[in-house]
Amino acid sequence: MKSTFLTAIFISALSLSSCNGQDDDVATPKVSNKEKVIEVLKSIETGAQEPASYINPESYTQHNLGVADGLAGFGEILQALPSNSAKVNTIRAFEDGDYIFTHTDYNFFGPKIGFDVFRFENGLIVEHWDNLQVTPEQPNPSGHTRIDGAIEITDLDKTEANKTLVRNFITDILINGNMDKIGNYFEGDQYIQHNPNIADGLSGLGSALAAMAEQGVTMEFSVIHKVLGQGNFVLSISEGHFGGAHTSYYDLFRVENGKIAEHWDVIETIAPEADRKNTNGKFNFPN
To answer: What local confidence, expressed as pLDDT, does residue 25 receive?
Structure first.
């Protein structure tokens, strides 16, 4: 069964690859990279094999450390899912050059929230990164979930400025701890928070950090690996430690009028080398 399943995926992938060289005069609907990613993710739920044709069958680098490399690794993880268990609802999808990044509500070996990043070359997916975290049962102290909130993409002309704002915020506040600069990044206490343990506003953040300090729990950011954005939404991908564990931080920010207005995140412990199914690293973004 597994062999048949994986063979079907490879055939589907090779089919699109060969179609890329067909006569351009044949009228075929153009599928955007964003649409391709949404279809690939949805195929985890539906079992559809056609979306695998959007993945380069000869060159696909996997950075989820629990999945084997290449298209075969993708097929194997789908095959391992309990029958009819998977659910995929992509809430937000964004494009930044050759990258598509998404915010998705999953049932993937249990309920999870995930950020996924895909890199394209010549219309095909060649690389994938993600961060996954178990979905909390209750909303946060302000009543927000991990996925609700603003969706509309605006301010496309401000993409680069917003990416710079977020990079500077992570550097100044979370890496260097220059709390005297925090007022540069927020409009007073107006700040919507989707982290399951933190209430809205800087006051909510301060209370949560104080509670963590009392429990001896530390949250450290050490390096920013990638900042992606489209308009008013910016995703930062960082590395550090949480409670002493080696950690990957994916933080999505909504920027409004030059200030951070809303925040979602997924925090994942990085698997030790002995437990990894590929050697590509959790980050390793191309320059």
So the answer is: 47
User: Which tens digit of pLDDT belongs to each residue from 11-45?
Assistant: 455 454 445 544 444 555 799 999 999 999 999 99
Domain that holds residue 97: 2-20+28-131
Report the pLDDT value the prediction gives residue 13, as an integer from 0 to 100: 54
Q: Tell me the C-alpha distance between 34 and 285, whole Å.
A: 19
How far is the C-alpha of 264 from the C-alpha of 233, rounded, in Å? 11
DSSP 172: I
How many whole angstroms separate alpha carbon 67 and alpha carbon 158?
36
In this structure, the answer to whether residues 76 and 196 fall within a common structural domain is no
The verdict on 127 and 160 lying in the same domain is no
123 and 189 assigned to the same domain: no
Tokens describing residue 219:
């949250």
- Kindly tell me if the per-residue pLDDT of 8 is higher than 60: no
Domain identity same for 176 and 264: yes
pTM: predicted TM-score of the whole model, two decimal places: 0.91
**Domain boundary residue among 131, 166, 184?**
131
38 and 112 assigned to the same domain: yes
Is residue 271 within 8 Å of 287, Cβ to Cβ? no
* 69-76 CB contacts, 8 Å cutoff, 24+ apart: 69/277, 69/278, 69/279, 69/280, 71/9, 71/10, 71/13, 72/6, 72/10, 73/277, 73/278, 74/9, 75/5, 75/6, 75/9, 75/10, 76/2, 76/6
Number of domains in the chain: 2
Q: What is the pLDDT of residues 229-283, one digit of tens each?
A: 999 999 999 999 999 999 999 999 999 999 999 999 999 999 999 999 999 999 9
